[in-house]
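[PROTEIN RECORD]
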Amino acid sequence: LRLLPRQRYLRAERAESGALERKRNVLCCLLSRILKAERRLHIDNLVFRVLAACQKGELGPGLQFPSFCCHSVDVLSCVLHLLNQGYLRRQEERPHVLEY
């Protein structure tokens, strides 16, 4: 009988999943903040504004990430998450417009 060495990749997976969760939380907060200010916005404009804020480093008060990089897929994933949670909704006659 021989004991296997402790697997190191499990710690790496936990750290990586924590970083992804923090990134999703930041993007969801940014999406909510932008939509609160605008009340309703076309989904393309919303994605553009979030990406621009990420590139400029304007993530909000108290949010400091030295190398925060996001893509449109990340933003759209967060939009779908917020839609499923009920924080956002689509207009019946114009489903491409999101409301807070």
User: Anything to note?
Assistant: The first strand starts at residue 40 and ends at 42. Strands lie at 40-42, 89-90, 97-99. The helical segments are 9-38, 43-56, 72-85.
